[in-house]
Amino acid sequence: MYNVDAGNGKPEAGMGLFKAAVLLFSLLFGLLVLAFGADWLLRTDNFPVRHVRFEGEFVHVTQQELESTVMNAVHGNFFLLNLDAVKARVESLPWVYRASVRRQWPQDIHVRFTEQRLTARWGDGAFLNQAGDVVPVTGQDFPAELPRLEGPEGTGPQVLEHSKNFSQIMAAVGLQLERITLTPRRTWRLTLANDMEIVLDQENPAQKLERFARVYAKSLTHLGSEIKRVDLRYSNGFAIDLAGDHGAGISGSPGHTETLGTQRSETSDKG
Q1: What percent of the chain has pLDDT over 90?
Q2: Residue 21 pLDDT more than 50?
Q3: Is 51 exposed, middle or buried (CB count within 10 Å of its CB: 0-12, 13-18, 19+)?
Q4: Which of 102, 126, 139, 160 has a CA between 20 and 30 Å from the CA of residue 238?
Q5: Which of 196, 126, 120, 215 is CA-nearest to residue 159?
Q6: What is the pTM of this model?
Q7: Each residue of 24-59: pLDDT tens digit?
Q8: 3-state helix, strand, coil in the chain (%, to 5)
Q9: What is the distance between the alpha carbons of residues 162 and 81, in angstroms, rounded to a whole number?
Q10: How many CB atoms lie within 10 A of CB 228?
Q11: Chain mean position to CA 147
Q12: Strand, helix or coil at 225?
């Protein structure tokens, strides 16, 4: 019997190298095609933005206003468009509260916005929105029933939140708040529709106001507009100033602090 040497497998080794070379060439060719394709897609002149579509309430914001605002930010390649820059431009409009921007295939941009919802007047010429942010909006059709708030710079959210609590407490006993002021020394001054003024400090203001509301509903409603000022900056009671003389064992004069139930110009709520 004779053994025949087939060349120690050299033809098979050569075929393996050939396949590897073909595979490498194919990969390089594919990468080259992808590179040229990406370059073509991302060229400024290719795939320009065709349409910008807006979605929102359109009560105070107009289509024309939006278009003129984003015009310079939506030119160029659809894939390279800076969506954050477009969003910032839309939100720069005074009546726009929030905006979102996304690409819409094949070459459109979709902008969705929410308008400011005014919740209060702030100071003499500004307003607070739903988040308590100060917004310098202008116009003629502002809600007439907006409460008037004011306070130091940056306290808008705090004043707005407290105003909601204060208003609910007063409304429960038939009183309406018209103005709330937080002073630089963090004293609360509440002005009611009947011209009554209520003064509170920083320590548990809502709790003290609730205590006054309970006493008012029980025994002070008959005084009506005669109560000019209520000082709630006491730990266990409050003091009131009356506009003039009143019967039922309570006498007073303008500027005089009435004493109801204690000897220290305080009214204690035992209930």
Answers
A1: 55
A2: yes
A3: exposed
A4: 160
A5: 120
A6: 0.69
A7: 766 766 665 555 545 555 555 667 888 899 999 999
A8: 35, 25, 45
A9: 43
A10: 17
A11: 17
A12: helix
